[in-house]
Design goal:
Strand order of the largest sheet: 1-4-5
Structural class: alpha+beta
Number of helices: 3
Number of strands: 6
CATH topology of the largest domain: Nucleotide Exchange Factor Grpe, Chain A, domain 2
Mean pLDDT: 92
Largest sheet: 3 strands, antiparallel
Low-confidence stretches: none
Length: 150
């Protein structure tokens, strides 16, 4: 009987030790997960920001050309910089919403006013500001003027 009691106590001690180790491991996993989430939040835009640095460098280079640059050269530089920025957007899942002539969609467009005009009623007549999607989610709706129904 004493032998059975001693074995049961040893068995209970082993289970208790295993439980403590499992509890400690669970706490370590939880702590690592919290650290990983914090690092992911903190550095989520790292790649995007790095790609934007090249665009900023291009703009700063354009600023140093001074008075000797012609309007055509400046426009060429601005167009190249815009193309560079569009490439960064494309790589990072940012796309434009430019709904000129399309049917008004409140999920993607924000109507500022209605105007008299030719064309289908409730179609966008003017795009005041393009909208943008981030991986198919609206970051900013397009600001539009819509054709009034007759």
């Amino acid at each position: 009987m004493e032998e059975m009691l001693r074995r049961a106590e040893l068995n209970a001690q082993e289970h208790h030790d295993a439980w403590l180790r499992a509890k400690a491991e669970t706490e370590n996993v939880r702590r690592r997960a919290v650290d990983d989430v914090e690092k992911a939040r903190k550095f989520a835009v790292d790649k995007f920001a790095g790609e934007l640095l090249a665009v900023k460098d291009s703009l700063e280079a354009a600023m140093t050309t001074g008075e000797k640059a012609s309007v055509d050269k400046i426009m060429e530089g601005v167009e190249l910089t815009l193309k560079q920025l569009s490439g960064v957007f494309e790589k990072n899942g940012i796309s434009e919403i430019n709904p000129l002539g399309q049917k008004f969609d409140p999920n993607y467009h924000q109507a500022i006013s209605m105007v008299d005009g030719e064309g289908e009623p409730n179609a966008t007549a003017t795009v005041l500001q393009k909208g943008y999607l981030l991986n198919e989610r609206v970051m900013r709706p397009a600001l539009v003027m819509v054709v009034k129904p007759k």
